[in-house]
Design brief:
Low-confidence stretches of chain B: none
Strand content of chain C: 5-15%
CATH class of chain C: Alpha Beta
Radius of gyration of chain C: 16 Å
Mean pLDDT of chain B: 83
Structural class of chain C: alpha/beta
Order of helices and strands of chain B: EHEEEEHE
Mean pLDDT of chain C: 82
Largest sheet of chain B: 4 strands, mixed
Chains: A alpha+beta, B alpha/beta, C alpha/beta
Distance between the termini of chain C: 47 Å
Distance between the termini of chain B: 34 Å
Radius of gyration of chain B: 14 Å
Largest sheet of chain C: 5 strands, parallel
Number of domains of chain C: 1
Number of strands of chain B: 6
Low-confidence stretches of chain C: none
Structural class of chain B: alpha/beta
Number of helices of chain C: 6
Number of strands of chain C: 5
Strand order of the largest sheet of chain B: 1-4-3-2
Strand content of chain B: 35-45%
Oligomer: heterotrimer
Order of helices and strands of chain C: HEHEEHEHEHH
Number of helices of chain B: 2
Shape of chain B: globular
Strand order of the largest sheet of chain C: 2-1-3-4-5
Largest interface: A-C, 39 and 40 residues
Chain lengths: 361, 114, 176
């Protein structure tokens, strides 16, 4: 064979929205070895949560772990805290949390789909996807008051109620979004050249997914039935028509198709929440000091999110541990690249939807 | 929520996990450390596919100098959690490289107390 | 020939994330998308520092990203402007005084425009880029160095040597 060539990919790269660094050793076009560096955005949030911030403030700090799945991080923390302190959250607050978390999932999935299309050379489809994504952003802004970092959930409930005027606009926009999402799903499923580019590239088999503990859309696209929404009872998903989407195949094409299908399921859940929203309080006061330990699993847009908290009757917690979905998907990515063509790398990386600011914290 | 917790000495961790772990059935979540001052409490979290609200936790305690056994022979994807442990707690984990997150100029072992 | 007025018509953007939460980054992406469409000012997002005029930085600058940020900055040709987007890029924000951050972009490279907000809204980012264009028009070809940097620059500038000397000083500060 020819001699080895080193190709660095990142930390700053056209295809990458965030800093991760892969160093590939290639022989001609084939990759023979890969090194990964994920530490570019390590800030030290876990330490600050356990020293600087009081337990009521930590929810707002962990939201800044990641802007894409901001509600998931807050939700993970507040669910753990409420379970630890035995707080009964009102039903209406749970439904509102579910609504925001599903809207957040839709915008994150659309972002990932659009980005994969751009990396495959489909700038037009990227623009279209982002155009429809703006609908979700408008809905989130109406509902929570901010486009990205909304700080909606808080210990004991939610910070903002849904008014009838907002609900009316939400219904109009949701209807429009459903049309557009159906169209997008059709494009991602049936477009001839996209299928040519993506089918059979970057395949994660079911066996591999189980051995490497893959989570989230990449695992479900490989046929592994795992979803914290079904396996952990943190929000009333079963009451609003949650269906687990599982596909066979595990290539880039299936990962994107799965995201499109999950978007449709999430829209359906949003409809059901709006139709059956219970009346009542949105917040109960949280009193006392946390003691003991608690861990929860949450389904973030990228997969299973794990929170561990421990307190000892003090205002500041002893330990907050965040295990994010991308963190457990990095090993399989590393495994996958060996033997792959270098030209397929950007699309494969983006189709895992990596979130490095989550990973490094 | 069902939590099945096993407390074992550090040297038995790998054997305990090997006894029950089977990739078809079990999902490895992460290994977590909590500083107790002078020693670190380590917890290996597992869950079963398709089962609701179920956790299996293997707990062990390690002093700062102990060598923590690696489980990457059993679970290949565990290396990243172990490297993080080695980095942020300054523990001596078998086969782990330092510098996943920290730079030479950042404080060493930041998650230790004191 | 005077290029100044042409430069303003097609500013190319280089975006680097130095430890932000991705919130500002997706808002920058939203700026490039149809609803806000920063392209109507001729701005394109290109990943190449040697072709770019505007450097958009998000995040509080982590210790590992510091050297890369300086490299990117020094590789860009003059005139150039730096826009710090988001509360954490301006001052460190919620991450201020955490152990692995530098508390703001202006601790490492000179910043011309600060865009506040957590996360900064697309309108604010566009506003910041327009402000940056005004500054870009006034700037000349002289090399601007960070405040902490004591390297003297005499024309003609050898960029490779300049970069190496700045990096040496950065590493020297780290050791000393």
């Amino acid at each position: 064979m020819g001699k080895r060539i080193t190709v660095p990919f990142g930390s700053q790269h056209v295809a990458l929205p965030e800093p991760v660094r892969f160093v590939f050793q290639t022989e001609n076009e084939k990759i023979v070895d890969v090194e990964v560096d994920v530490g570019y955005v390590h800030r030290g949030i876990e330490k600050a949560c356990a020293t600087k911030f009081k337990y009521m403030q930590v929810g707002y700090v962990v939201a800044r772990v990641c802007g894409l799945c901001a509600i998931s991080h807050t939700l993970g923390y507040v669910t753990a805290l409420e379970r630890l302190m035995g707080v009964e959250v009102p039903k209406r607050a749970l439904y509102l949390r579910l609504l925001v978390s599903e809207l957040d999932r839709i915008h994150s999935h659309l972002l990932a789909m659009g980005h994969t299309a751009e990396v495959a050379g489909y700038e037009n489809l990227f623009m279209q996807t982002f155009r429809h994504r703006e609908l979700v952003m408008e809905m989130l802004e109406l509902l929570t008051g901010n486009r990205v970092q909304f700080d909606f959930a808080c210990p004991g409930g939610v910070n903002r109620d849904l008014t009838p005027e907002v609900e009316k606009v939400l219904r109009e926009k949701l209807k429009l979004l459903e049309e557009k999402a159906l169209w997008l799903k059709d494009v991602y499923e049936n477009d001839f050249s996209l299928a040519l580019r993506w089918k059979g590239i970057g395949v994660v088999t079911e066996k591999m997914a189980k051995e490497m503990n893959v989570v989230g859309p990449p695992a479900r696209a490989a046929g592994l039935k795992t979803d914290a929404r079904a396996e952990f009872n943190y929000l009333p998903f079963k009451e609003v028509g949650y269906k687990m989407v599982v596909l066979k195949g595990g290539s880039i094409y299936e990962r994107n198709l799965l995201r499109a299908l999950e978007v449709l399921n999430s829209i359906q859940m949003c409809w059901n929440v709006l139709d059956g929203l219970p009346e009542g309080e949105i917040k109960v006061p949280v009193k006392g000091l946390p003691e003991g330990e608690m861990f929860v699993r949450i389904e973030a847009p990228r997969g299973e999110l794990f929170y561990y908290i421990r307190g000892s009757q003090k205002l500041v917690l002893d330990r907050v541990r965040i295990r994010v979905p991308t963190f457990s998907n990095i090993p399989v990515m590393k495994e996958l690249f060996v033997g792959m063509d270098y030209a397929d790398v950007p699309a494969t990386v983006i189709s895992f939807d990596p979130c490095l600011s989550c990973t490094a914290r | 929520m069902v939590v099945d917790e096993v407390k074992v000495p550090l040297r038995d961790v790998r054997r305990t996990i090997k006894e029950f772990y089977n990739p078809q059935e079990w999902h490895f979540i992460t290994v977590n450390g909590v500083d107790l001052g002078g020693k670190v409490e380590l917890k290996w979290f597992f869950t079963r596919y398709g089962e609701e609200e179920y956790f299996k936790v293997v707990t062990a305690e390690a002093s700062y100098e102990d060598e923590v056994p690696t489980i990457t022979y059993l679970i290949p994807s565990a290396w990243i959690s172990e490297w993080e442990l080695a980095d942020l707690f300054g523990l001596n984990v078998e086969g782990a490289k330092k510098g996943l997150f920290l730079d030479p100029e950042s404080p060493q072992a930041p998650l230790r107390r004191g | 020939m005077d290029f100044k007025s042409f430069r303003k018509k097609s500013p190319w953007i280089l975006h680097y994330n130095t430890g932000s939460c991705n919130g500002c980054d997706i808002e920058i992406l939203a700026c490039l998308a149809p609803k806000y469409d920063i392209e109507r000012f001729g701005a394109l997002n290109r990943g190449n520092p040697k072709q770019s005029d505007i450097l958009i930085v998000t995040g509080p600058v982590t210790k590992r990203a510091k050297e890369r940020l300086l490299r990117l900055y020094l590789e860009m040709p003059e005139p150039k402007v730096v826009v710090a987007v988001g509360a954490c890029a301006c001052s460190g924000g919620v991450f201020r005084h955490m152990y692995n951050v530098e508390n703001g972009v202006d601790k490492v490279i000179p910043v011309d425009v600060y865009v506040p907000g957590c996360a900064a809204r697309p309108e604010a980012i566009i506003d910041g880029v327009i402000k940056a264009l005004e500054i870009l028009e006034k700037k000349g070809k002289e090399v601007e160095l960070p405040r902490w940097c004591s390297v003297e620059v005499k024309p003609p500038v050898n960029r490779v040597k300049l970069l190496n000397r700045c990096l040496e000083e950065l590493h020297g500060r780290r050791r000393g």
